[in-house]
Amino acid sequence: MDLILTLVSGIAWTVVYVEAIRVGLRDRTYAMPVAALALNFAWESIYAVREFTDSGMTAQGVVNVVWAAADVVIVFTYLRFGRAELPRFVTRPMFAAWSVLVFATGFAVQGLFLAHFGAHDASRYSAFLQNLLMSGLFIGLFAARQGPRGQSLTIAVAKWLGTLAPTVLFGVLADAPFILGLGILCSVFDLVYIGLLLQARRRTTAAPVRSLPDPSR
Predict the structure, then answer these.
(1) So where are the chain's domains?
(2) SS3 content of the chain, % helix, strand, coil (to 5)
(3) Of the candidate ranges 40-54, 107-121, 189-203, the one whose mean pLDDT is the lowest
(4) Spatial contact of 48 and 61, defined as CB atoms under 8 Å apart
(5) Mean pLDDT of 34-57
(6) What's the pLDDT score for residue 6?
(7) What number of other Cβ atoms are within 10 A of residue 192's Cβ?
(8) Measured between alpha carbons, how far is 194 from 148 in angstroms, rounded to an integer?
(9) What is the mean pLDDT of residues 81-105?
(10) Band of the pLDDT at 211, cuts 50, 70, 90?
(11) Which of 41, 72, 117, 157 is most buried, judging by how many CB atoms fall within 10 Å of its CB?
């Protein structure tokens, strides 16, 4: 059961990352909130290295490497298109400095978790906390962009399922109430986000199609 849930999570989050790359390039934007992206990139980089160093070739280690590689491309979409999302007074040097600060902070936060809790607990606590942050930030992204630009229902559903699997694995089967509580909160926010995207899709579908004037008249 542990392996099945790990694979479900790995496949679902891989779908999130691949779709985020596709949507980001299509809409010329980035499809993951940058604070969550920085934390994710740091988490996956750090724990991919630790997994292979400590345990050798494992399913989770392979998954972490795949995620980190996908994150590199998503980071590229942020660096390529992210400045256009900011006010005009933000110059290229300001954007570069801000980006370095955000991604350095992501690694610093993961390092602090690791130093305080140790690898076993830090990997789980930080993963679920940043996942909850991402869930809220996706809703904020929808509000800031006033719609689903640079987002997709596939990302939202795959994120929800990719979080639900480890919630069952670590929160229920491993009997960890803290992780279970965070996982439930993630599901609440993820379902709200899915609802927003469904509502936006229905509005688009229901929008009347304007007929072109008849040139013969």
Answers:
(1) 2-205
(2) 80, 0, 20
(3) 40-54
(4) yes
(5) 87
(6) 84
(7) 15
(8) 11
(9) 95
(10) very low
(11) 41
pLDDT at 56: 67
The stretch 81-110 carries a mean pLDDT of 95
**Cα 84 from chain centroid?**
20
Tokens of 49: 């290295």
In this structure, what are the phi and psi dihedrals at residue 28, rounded to the nearest 5 degrees?
55, 55
Contact 14, 40 (CB under 8 A): no
User: What is the identity of the amino acid at 122?
Assistant: A
List the structure tokens of 153: 């229902």
Spell out the residues 6+ positions from residue 110 whose beta carbon is closer than 8 angstroms to its own: 39, 42, 43, 46, 122, 126
How far apart are the C-alpha atoms of 100 and 192, rounded to whole Å?
Answer: 31
Tell me the C-alpha distance between 164 and 186, whole Å.
8
What gap in Å lies between CA 124 and CA 168, rounded to an integer? 13
Residue 39 and residue 86: Cα distance in Å, rounded?
21
DSSP letters of 69-108? HHHHHHHHHHHHHGGGGS-TT--HHHHHHHHHHHHHHHHH
Which residue matches tokens 């602090």? 112
- Give the other-Cβ count within 10 Å of 158's Cβ: 21
Return the residue matching tokens 């933000």.
90
* Amino acid (one-letter) located at 204: T
- What number of other Cβ atoms are within 10 A of residue 93's Cβ? 8
Residue 58 zone, left/alpha/beta (φ > 0; ψ -120 to 50; rest): beta
In the structure encoding, which two tokens stand for residue 142, read together?
A: 């929808």
pLDDT at 37 over 90: yes
